[in-house]
């Protein structure tokens, strides 16, 4: 899979979605708005499905796809949307931390040492593995997406996109759990 192409597709999809939303509120441009909005949602869905399909081989792309989408959404936030801006910035930073964890779990020696810094209490573990920054990012982002899905009136196609993104976070966390187990095998 071409990471650059996938991330470019994500970038383009958010631009089309944002443009479509703007045009839907502009007299005379409503038909163009529907086309742009739908095109953006379709492109995003295809991109997130591709990332999901390749999660086992390229876990990084799942995180980068989500982070790219969020960072693009951030660019289209109105300055008055303080809560949304704060949430998107926090999510992006948590994905930076997740990517750092992904680098460390690839090194068995390093990850064995890092694992010893995590409490053994079940509150700090997932399936006996450390609940580290990768898990924290996936868990908090699933919560964020679930909160959006509770909003009434979300377009069915956009709801499907959020559901796909939710599935991507669950898959990413499961693949990461396998990487943790492999790194901690004696």
Overview in brief:
This protein is an all-alpha fold. The chain is 75% helix and 2% strand. α2 runs antiparallel to α3.
SSE topology sketch:
Layout: H1 3-24, H2 30-53, H3 59-75, H4 82-105, H5 108-115, E1 125-126, E2 129-130, H6 133-149, H7 156-183
Antiparallel strand pairs: 1-2
Helix pairs in contact: 1-2, 1-3, 2-3, 2-7, 3-4, 3-7, 4-6, 6-7
Write structural notes for this entry.
It is a single chain. This protein is an all-alpha fold and 186 residues long. The protein has one domain. 75% of the residues lie in helices and 2% in strands. The chain is built from 7 helices and 2 strands. It has helices at residues 3-24, 30-53, 59-75, 82-105, 108-115, 133-149, 156-183; strands at residues 125-126, 129-130. The protein has a two-stranded antiparallel sheet. α2 (30-53) runs antiparallel to α3 and α2 packs parallel to α7. The longest helix has 28 residues, at 156-183. The mean pLDDT is 94.
Oligomeric status: single chain
**Overall body shape:** elongated
What's the SSE pattern? Answer: HHHHHEEHH
Number of strands: 2
Q: Mean pLDDT, rounded to whole units? A: 94
Portion in strands: under 5%
Strand order of the largest sheet: 1-2
Low-confidence spans: pLDDT under 50, at least 5 residues? none
Helix count equals 7
